[in-house]
Design brief:
Helix content of chain A: 25-40%
CATH topology of one domain in chain B: Alpha-Beta Plaits
CATH architecture of one domain in chain B: 2-Layer Sandwich
Strand content of chain A: 15-25%
Number of strands of chain A: 12
Oligomer: heterodimer
Structural class of chain A: alpha/beta
Shape of chain A: elongated
Largest interface: A-B, 41 and 46 residues
Shape of chain B: elongated
CATH class of one domain in chain B: Alpha Beta
Distance between the termini of chain A: 96 Å
Number of helices of chain A: 12
Distance between the termini of chain B: 58 Å
Structural class of chain B: mainly alpha
Chain lengths: ~325, ~500
Amino acid sequence: MSEISRRDFLRSAVLGLGALVAARYLSACASPQAAIKTPVPPLISTTPQETKPAATSYPDLSVVKGGEPEALVRKAVELLGGMGRFVKKGDNVIIKPNIGPSVRAYEYAATTNPWVIAAVARLCFEAGAGRVRVMDKPFGGTAEDGYARSGIKEHVEGAGAEMEIMSRFKFVATDIPNGQDIKKWDIYEDILKADVLINIPIAKQHSGSRLTLGLKNLMGTINSAQMFHINLHQRIADLATRVRPSLTIIDAVRILVANGPTGGNLKDVRKLDTIIASADIVAADSYATALFGLKPADVPHIIKATDMGLGISDLGRLNIKEITLGS
Amino acid sequence: MAVSQKNSGGWNTRSWLNLRTTVQILAFLGFLVLFLNALPLLMCLDPLAMLANLIASRSFTPLSALALIMVALSLVFGRAWCGWLCPLGTMLEWFSFNRWRKKQSRRPDWWRSVKYILLMAIIAAAVFSNLTLMVLDPLTIMVRTFALSVWPGLDAILTAIESALNNVPALGDSVARFDNAIRPWLFPTESLYYRDGLIFALAFIGIISLNLVAERFWCRYICPLGAFYGLTAKISLIRRRVDGNCTRCKLCQDTCPTSAIDRKKDCSSDPGECIMCLKCMDSCPCATSDFGRALAPARWNTYDPGLRQALMGMGAAAILAILFRVTPLARRDNTRLIRPPGSTERAMASRCIRCGQCIKSCPTAAIQPSQAEAGAEGLWTPVIVPRIGFCQYSCNACGQACPVQAIPPLPLKEKRTTPIGWAFIDRNRCLPWADNQPCIVCEEMCPVPDKAIILNTVESENADGSRIKLQRPTVVKGRCIGCGLCEYKCPVNGEAAIRVQSYGYN
């Protein structure tokens, strides 16, 4: 065996150390530490009256019943003043439906109605949106499978919008300064950076959060959802201080009244043909509790969100416009 | 027409060698396609796996007849599989370490017997319905290593690069588009984790490193599939021939990657060792060797299988088969031995060829290679480890991927109602049971239409004497299918507070 020369030794030492440093650098880049620098939205809910004094004629909440999903959505948004109120020309829009369980077709009311999502996407484009993406973080299977099986991929792409599979490297540790229990969590950065976030939950029974509506649906924007379940109600409200949809449209075309949020029995599904829309996520959720024969006070996270000033849960204080199509 | 140096029909040595390289690359890409899509076709091209499975299971899988194509090919072209098609052989050639090894050194010829003994042992063990030694088949090694080490490794590298580039402001958008458009074709969207990836990687590196001892060490001395083709090659139609003008210059012997050529035997080669790589033809300065028709069976060498090797192989198999029957598992099942849907211990023992295609097919990495769960006999058979991955309710991929029906191809509807185990709540760990903390994750996740986990609202006493109302989960036995989503999602750190156990009815 030949002796190793000093030059060889140095060369391999430098190479090895360089590789180590490079590996260290790469893995450091890989860990999502850079906190998002987007401005934290104001805590007080931006109900129409507050942001647009001139538009007081718009109701706080619209409810439309009896019709095909697309017609329901169009009417509900029109009653709120049209999509142009929320989406400006060239806006980067993200639609967040509930594609929770990846294993069900839409009939089981475990995932948001595909036609409702497609209608919202079309409305966004009609209002001049530059880019419309639809995304959620399904559980119990892969996102691809969930997107396809729910029927949502087909209809969203038919409307010209994109289905985005949430990339794991885009969940970034984000400060939640107004949170009471959680001060930091991994949140999907594109959702924080989007010009407009539209929240389209489906109304479902849920054993942990009682109901899953607009506020609960925001849990699809984060990582480590299991750990979130400890002190769930407070954490849902905390998250809602940071992730602020401009518009919440509750899909109650079909609702799931038992065995939620996963479903699987058609006997647990009620067809209500109803759409509830509001810029106030708390108001929309509060109204939707009635679909299940409940009151806002029955759902702890709605109360916590109200207490934190995220919106209005007292239905008596809301200007509600309720119509039935074709009557 | 014989394959020779002579320029016949525009084909010279160079063109033949180029053809072989092209075929090798295409075959390797073909392997990757079959591997990535977990197609059962891959293993059906392996006559050793199909034969051993046929003997061990005493049943015939129609698709396995495809292996006869490979047998027929080897009856014409000898061990061309090894030199032209085998993905492991190709990798051994790409990482030949020729530059680092001293000149072609001849090793004791009896080493070549080892592969024949292994072949005999596999066949003899199959008679006892045991297929453990199939872990040595080159295709199973390739699939296992790629599924458990190579692919997860590449995935980790890609993710690290994506994460790094995502932090570069101008690139973020294109990285995301790449991630959405390209990744689903090659890699899972969520990271998958596998047991023992490092061990499989090291074993593979070990196999390749044997090239430092002798070129294609694996193919020469160990590979049982090579031994199988070595036997058919003895009577193959096309072989290497040497004519009388040979000057015994020994150049071909030094070139031959399997040392199949012996100068002492007139520079003739043993077709049982020759992998038809044609390198000897290229090296020959006198154009005295070609590859053409030969009708008489090849000569039998000392290392070729005889009574001695057969007895050794069968003896090894018998000892293994007996040792496997004296493990504690023969008395008591391992509660964590959860098999993929529809498969039984019996089917697993007598059918599973350890190819690992089910592991690759599983989108959630629920299927892992067994360690101790199935004993030494069941080494690297598929087990479901819910804490690493759960069995997806809307997936029946493993049954479709299995080439030998060790996992039956259940229709989705049937798979959804086929229990693979039962969930048990560990009340000493479960948050609402042990700690009076509200948690309902297992119930929330349960994908069975009528939830197999129900919540009962109870009043409980805290340590300080105060009372609290909370929901506590209980498993409804008849409804649980053992998918393990609850165990996977349980927020308790480390071992879950709800765990799936096997039935123990096999």
